[in-house]
Design a protein that fits this description.
Length: 240
């Protein structure tokens, strides 16, 4: 059963969502305090976190930052105002999606289901994955894992989705608009900075210098270009 952790100090909303999400076969854990939410995250291992920005003692941004230090679990942030600054801040910290309050519960369900599909929750664990090699980078597309010079990278859902898009279209300058359209399994909200934020985080993890890029080159006024030409990894690389 899919387990959803909601961290929100609005008890009535928590109960409403617990009942509503339960109709879609989801088990829901709720916490009204950040520390309680962290405890549940560490002990119950949920599939996805719904995190409110406005919380007692600390805000959702600092909590998102702490979660990202130890987990790549998908995160949907709830913003009371729905302001651009709040949405950008959440994306910069590693949130995968945001939803401004008030919202329709059915929209939240759609975003949860889309994120879980993207993270591969429904994949067959017995199916052997084809791994792609691009320079010192190896990527398991089915398993949604990536390694740089043998060290596994901790990528969020958004970061991995962009990496997979780059691998599927190497040597082609991708516009921000094309990337947004291709990746909007959830509502990315059509503003270009969401792409820039995710690419910037991905670059940092790839240890890629924007001034002297090895993997991702900025095409000014257009978008981005993935430089190395990927190929299917050898059986020896699979075994390694």
């Amino acid at each position: 059963m899919t387990t959803i952790l909601i961290i929100d100090d609005d008890r009535s909303l928590n109960e409403l969502l617990k009942t509503y999400l339960g109709q879609f076969g989801m088990q829901v854990l709720t916490a009204v305090h950040p520390n309680e939410g962290l405890t549940l995250l560490r002990t119950q291992v949920p599939s996805l976190v719904i995190l409110d920005v406005m919380l007692p003692d600390r805000d959702g941004f600092s909590l998102c930052r702490e979660i990202r230090k130890e987990s790549n679990i998908p995160i949907i942030m709830l913003t009371a105002r729905g302001e651009l600054a709040d949405r950008v801040a959440g994306l910069e910290l590693g949130a995968d999606d945001y939803l401004p309050k008030p919202f329709e519960p059915r929209e939240l369900v759609a975003r949860i289901q889309s994120l879980l599909r993207r993270t591969g929750m429904e994949r067959d664990p017995e199916t052997r994955s084809e791994r792609i090699q691009a320079d010192d980078l190896m990527v398991d597309l089915r398993g949604r894992r990536a390694w740089l010079r043998g060290t596994e990278l901790e990528l969020t859902t958004s970061e991995f989705d962009i990496l997979a898009l780059f691998l599927s279209q190497p040597g082609i300058a991708l516009t921000r608009e094309h990337m947004l359209e291709t990746l909007r399994g959830i509502d990315w909200e059509a503003y270009n900075r969401s792409v820039d934020i995710a690419v910037s985080r991905l670059r940092q993890k790839l240890q890629d210098d924007p001034k002297h890029p090895r993997y991702i080159k900025t095409i000014w006024g257009t978008g981005y270009l993935f430089l190395p030409i990927p190929h299917v990894a050898s059986e020896k690389a699979h075994d390694a």
